[in-house]
Specification:
Layout (H helix, E strand, L loop, with lengths): L1 H21 L6 E15 L2 E8 L8 E4 L3 E8 L7 E4 L25 E7 L5 E7 L9 E7 L12 E10 L4 H9 L9 E4 L8 E2 L2 E2 L4 E4 L4 E8 L5 E6 L4 E6 L2 E8 L2 E3 L4 E7 L6 E9 L12 E8 L23 H8 L18 E13 L14 E7 L2 E3 L7 H7 L30 H6 L3 E3 L3 E3 L4 E8 L8 E5 L4 E8 L17 E3 L1 E4 L3 E8 L4 E7 L2 H6 L2 E6 L28
Parallel strand pairs: 1-4, 3-8, 9-14, 13-21, 22-27, 24-25, 26-34
Antiparallel strand pairs: 1-2, 4-6, 5-7, 7-8, 9-10, 11-12, 14-19, 15-18, 15-20, 16-17, 16-19, 20-21, 22-23, 27-32, 28-31, 28-33, 29-30, 29-32, 33-34
Catalytic activity: 4 hydroquinone + O2 = 4 benzosemiquinone + 2 H2O
Organism: Hordeum vulgare subsp. vulgare (Domesticated barley)
Main location: secreted
C-alpha cells in the first residue's frame, strides 16, 4: 500500500509540473512532491543503503520559467531530520523558505512533512537543490532549471539541454560519515566519482564494468550541458574527447561566451556550456576527474567517472576502433581551475550588472584550519595530536552550529540571548604570511597559529549596505581552495589572484565593467577572491565553504540583514506553512 501511495504522489507531482510548464508565457505555480526515503543500490560488488528523493539518483529536476512560483511538498520517510535548500535561489523576502538547517529552520522530523513556497524572478540558467542537514546532499540533490521568458536566450537555442550532475559514490553510510567528521575523524573517502549517478566503466566489479552515463547526440546539433558539482569533497575537471565547450552561464547568470576544452566546477557551482556535436560520428568518452592539492597536503585517492557521448548513426562497437578519451590535467594541478575561473566574465545587463562603486563595509576573511582541545581547555598538545580536534575557521573563529533551534526564528522573535553574538571579526586577529606553504606540515610556525575556539559569531548589516569581502585562502595546516557560498545573494566577483591579497595594488585589477555575478566563488588554493554586493534582501543568510568537511569543521557564519524602511524592503512574518522549532530541535507537527 505504501508503494502505491508513493507512486501516486509522484505521478500527481509530475502532472502538476507538466500542466504548469504548458501554461506558456504567463507566470505559473509549479508544484512537486519530494518523498525522501532509503533505498539499496549495488555498486562495486557491494549493496549500499542510500538516501534519495522519489527513488531517483540524482533527484528529480525542477524545471521552471523566470517569474514562476515553486511549491515543493517534502515528505520525510527517513529515520532522522532533514531540510531542503534551494541553492542559489535569491529568496527575495522569502528567507523562511531557504532550507538551511538550524539557520532558517529546524529539520523536518522523521515521518514529518513540510511545504516550501517561493517565487523565482530575475534569474535564468542552472541552479540546484540539496539536503542541508548532515552529509545527505551526496545523494539527496538535483538540478533546478530556470528558463527565460519566451524561451529567448542570448545565444542560439540548443537542440536539447542536459543536466550533468557530478557527484561521489560513498559506501559508508552518510549519517555515519557525518558523525565521524563531527568527532574529528576525516579519514573516510568516497570510492568513486559519478556522472548522473553512474560510476562509469573505469570502475568494475569482478571484471564487469560499471554502467556509464550515455549522452546521445546528432551531428550538426548543439547541446546545452548544465554541469553541477554536488560532491562533498572535491572540485572536478570535466572534458569530452574531440569536443570543445562555449561557457555561457554560471549560477543562473549569463556569462560572456568563453571557449574552452575543459570545465572546472567546484562543489556548489553550476556551469552552463554549449557543446556542438561537430565531430565525426562515433563514440567519445567524457571524463570527470577530481583535483586535490599536492603534498604536503593530506593526500586522498583520485576519483574519476567516465561517460560516453554517442553519435546517432555510429556503429555499436565504434567500428572496432578505440573510443577516444580526453587528456586530463594532473590530479594535483590546481592551476587550470584558477585560469578557468579567472577567465569568466559576466554578460553585461543594464538592470543587474551595476557594480556598487563605493564600499560601506569592508571585510577580509582568512580561511584556515586550526585546532581545539578535546578536554575543553586551552592547553593540550597540538600538531594534529589525539588531544585535539582539527577545525576550520574564518578569521580564527570556528563556527559553532546550533543544534536545537533556528537562528532566523530566534532573531525574528527577539530571543537571541545566549544563542549568538554579532562580533565576528572583520579582519584576522594576527596578520601573518597567509600563503606560506611551510605552514602546511606541523612545525613551530604552524603550531603558534593553530589554537582557535568555537563560537556562534555572526555579522549584522543595515539594509542597502555596499559590502566588499576579500576571501583569503591560507596554507595553515592545508592549502585547499575554498568554494564560498552565500545564501540569499548573488555577488560580483571583481577579481582573484594567487598569493596574499595586496590592498594597495590588487584593487587596480578589479573588473567593474563586466564581472561575474555568482552565488559561489571558488577562492583559489593559496589565493584570494574579491566580491561585492548590496544588502537588499533582509533576513538571516548562511555563508559557508561548500566542501562538506569544511562546513562541519566550522568554516561558516551567518549574515543578518536588517529590514529596510518599507514593508516591501522588510522580512515578512513566517508564512502559514512555516513550522516552528520544537524543544527537540525538529519542526513541530
Amino acid at each position: 500500500m505504501e508503494k502505491l501511495s508513493m507512486a501516486a504522489t509522484i505521478f500527481c507531482a509530475v502532472v502538476l509540473a507538466a500542466l504548469a510548464a504548458a501554461a506558456g508565457g504567463e507566470a505559473a505555480v509549479v508544484e512537486h512532491t519530494f518523498v525522501v526515503h532509503e533505498m539499496n543500490q549495488t555498486h562495486l560488488c557491494n549493496t549500499t543503503k542510500i538516501y534519495v528523493v522519489n527513488g531517483q539518483l540524482p533527484g528529480p529536476t525542477i524545471d521552471i520559467t523566470d517569474g514562476d512560483t515553486v511549491v515543493v511538498h517534502v515528505v520525510n520517510r527517513l529515520p532522522h531530520g532533514l531540510t531542503i535548500h534551494w541553492h542559489g535561489v535569491r529568496q527575495i523576502r522569502s528567507c523562511w523558505s531557504d532550507g538551511a538547517g538550524f539557520v532558517t529552520e529546524c529539520p523536518i522530523p522523521p515521518g514529518g512533512e513540510h511545504m516550501y513556497r517561493f517565487n523565482v524572478t530575475g534569474q535564468v540558467g542552472t541552479l540546484w537543490w540539496h539536503a542541508h542537514v548532515t552529509c545527505l546532499r551526496a545523494t539527496v540533490a538535483g538540478a533546478f532549471i530556470i528558463r527565460p521568458k519566451g524561451g529567448r536566450y542570448p545565444f542560439p537555442t540548443p537542440a536539447k539541454d542536459v543536466p550533468i550532475i557530478i557527484g561521489e559514490w560513498w559506501e559508508l553510510d552518510l549519517v555515519e560519515l557525518d558523525r565521524r567528521m563531527h568527532d574529528g575523524n576525516f579519514d573516510d573517502n568516497p570510492l568513486s566519482a559519478t556522472i548522473n549517478g553512474k560510476l562509469g566503466d573505469l570502475s568494475n566489479c569482478s571484471g564487469k564494468p560499471e554502467e556509464s552515463f550515455v549522452l546521445d547526440v546528432v551531428r550538426g546539433k548543439t547541446y546545452l550541458l548544465r554541469i553541477v558539482n554536488t560532491a562533498l569533497f572535491s572540485e572536478y575537471y570535466f572534458k569530452v574527447a574531440g569536443h570543445t565547450f562555449t561557457v555561457v552561464g554560471a549560477d543562473a547568470n549569463y556569462l560572456t561566451p568563453y571557449k574552452t576544452d575543459m570545465v572546472s566546477v567546484a562543489p556548489g557551482e553550476a556551469i552552463d556550456v554549449l557543446m556542438a556535436a561537430d565531430a565525426p560520428p562515433a563514440h567519445y568518452h567524457m571524463l570527470a576527474l577530481a583535483n586535490q592539492p599536492p603534498e604536503p597536503d593530506l593526500q586522498i585517492p583520485g576519483f574519476v567517472s567516465r561517460g560516453l557521448v554517442r553519435y546517432a548513426g555510429s556503429s555499436h562497437n565504434n567500428n572496432g576502433l578505440p573510443v577516444p578519451t580526453p587528456l586530463m590535467p594532473s590530479q594535483h594541478d590546481t592551476m587550470p581551475s584558477y585560469h578557468f575561473h579567472n577567465n569568466l566574465t559576466g554578460l553585461a545587463h543594464p538592470d543587474r550588472h551595476r557594480v556598487p562603486m563605493h564600499v560601506d563595509e569592508s571585510i577580509y576573511f582568512t580561511l584556515a584550519l586550526g585546532s581545539i582541545c578535546r578536554n575543553g581547555t586551552k592547553t593540550c598538545k597540538r600538531r594534529r595530536g589525539p588531544e585535539t580536534i582539527v577545525v576550520a575557521t574564518m578569521n580564527n573563529v570556528s563556527f559553532r552550529h546550533p543544534t536545537n533551534t533556528s537562528l532566523l526564528e530566534r532573531y525574528y522573535d527577539g530571543r537571541t540571548s545566549g544563542l549568538y553574538t554579532e562580533d565576528l571579526p572583520d579582519h584576522p586577529p594576527h596578520p601573518y604570511n597567509y600563503t606560506d606553504r611551510a605552514l602546511i606540515p606541523p612545525g613551530p610556525l604552524e603550531e603558534a597559529l593553530e589554537p582557535t575556539f568555537k563560537a556562534t559569531k555572526l555579522r549584522r548589516f543595515r539594509y542597502n549596505t555596499s559590502v566588499e569581502i576579500i576571501f583569503q585562502s591560507t596554507a595553515l595546516l592545508q592549502s585547499d581552495s575554498n568554494p564560498m557560498h552565500l545564501h540569499g545573494y548573488d555577488f560580483f566577483v571583481l577579481a582573484m589572484g594567487i598569493g596574499n591579497y595586496n590592498p594597495k595594488t590588487d584593487p587596480k585589477k578589479f573588473n567593474y565593467h563586466n564581472p561575474q555575478l555568482r552565488n559561489t566563488v571558488q577562492v583559489p588554493r593559496t589565493g584570494w577572491a574579491a566580491v561585492r554586493f548590496v544588502t537588499d534582501n533582509p533576513g538571516m543568510w548562511y555563508l559557508h565553504c561548500h566542501f562538506e568537511f569544511h562546513i562541519i569543521m566550522g568554516m561558516a557564519t551567518a549574515f543578518i540583514v536588517e529590514n529596510g524602511p518599507t514593508p516591501e524592503t522588510s522580512l515578512p512574518p513566517p508564512p502559514p506553512e512555516f513550522k516552528r522549532c520544537g524543544s527537540n530541535g525538529l519542526t513541530q507537527p
